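Proteins fold reproducibly. Look at a concrete instance:
___
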Amino acid sequence: MKVILVVDDDATNLRTLGELLRPEYRVRLASSGEDALRIAGSDPRPDLILLDVMMPVMDGYEVLRRLQADEATRTIPVVFVTALHDEDSEQRGFELGAADFIHKPIRAAVALSRIRAQIDARTARESLRRKAQHMARVAEQGAEQLENTRQQLLQSEKMASIGQLSAGIAHEINNPVGFVASNLAALGRYLDDLFSIIDACAAESGAPAEQRLAEVRGLMQRLEYDYLKEDVLDLLAESKEGVERVRQIVADMKGFSHAGASGWQWADLHGGLDSTLNIARSTFKHHCTLVKRYGELPQIHCIPSQLNQVFMNLVVNAAQAIEGSGEITVTTGRVGDDSVQVSIADTGKGISPEGLRRLFEPFYTTKPVGEGTGLGLTLSREIVQRHRGQIEVNSELGKGTVFTLTLPIDPVLDIDADTEPPAAAV
């Protein structure tokens, strides 16, 4: 409960204000300026002081001056309660640091409204102060903490991407799991039939061999042995394919979202693109044709998991930009002797000139609520810059958009900065 200190040399005024405030606040009372300073400096410190102006020995102005001079009480808002109505008195009070004035005779509704406003304002200021202190502490921790925060943000964006795709990924997994389960049920029935045939062959009987052979052949015909033999092989092949599909999706998800895979290494961009397209498949397979135009690429020195995040952002954006049916084209190739290019193009609705200007701003998004964080392209540009690369975008309304990444094969790394390349202009 918020604490309000009421200061007035008139006992009736103290009692009136106390009764007005006690239903909502904890009230402390002081009948003189000296008592007010003592109480304001003790715990619990008041969240607001209602201070009478005209008091003997020490008037309200002097009390406020001393409160302002003390570091411990400087931030406590002071509202003067006075019968004075002249502008000079108010101007003097505001110059000394008063937050507001309440005039006597006190009107309960007006007083409570102004008091609540000051309490809310103090709460907001305290919240901002705490946040500012927190940010100052974070800044003081230096480059290492900044890098940790950036990595956490990047990982959060990765997981947000996975979260947004989770329904589609679940569907991609459930499909093969569903037909594998169905195939296993069929295989169970086929095994029962096969065991029946085997048992008939192994059963001891006094009947002649020709009769037993005829009985077994009759059983095989009734159980459609020839069809069963062929279908068992088809079911096994189909089930193997389904299990491999699930294994590949899980492997791609693990590779995409693994937080620890953040070191620089030589990597195949085509492998990263294929894994990313596999994860994002559910976003485009029903309404987009995927065209891959892969050129000859050497391995490049990079952080593969981070570039995969860039590919994911661009592919998902491309799929979401296409209304109805369309085409997504992924093109790769070498540029000169020391760089490679990856472009992701769509035939979607395009981006307006205003949107292009703001495209890489943090939290800017044209997507509906829940479909984007507004950080994807911001982080993508940062990742490309860390690789000493460039990201360019060309778009035309109604025709589509092309994002082009140009990356050095072996960026010059700053050894003293733990192999992190400096940012390059886009």
User: Anything to note?
Assistant: The two ends are 53 Å apart (CA to CA).
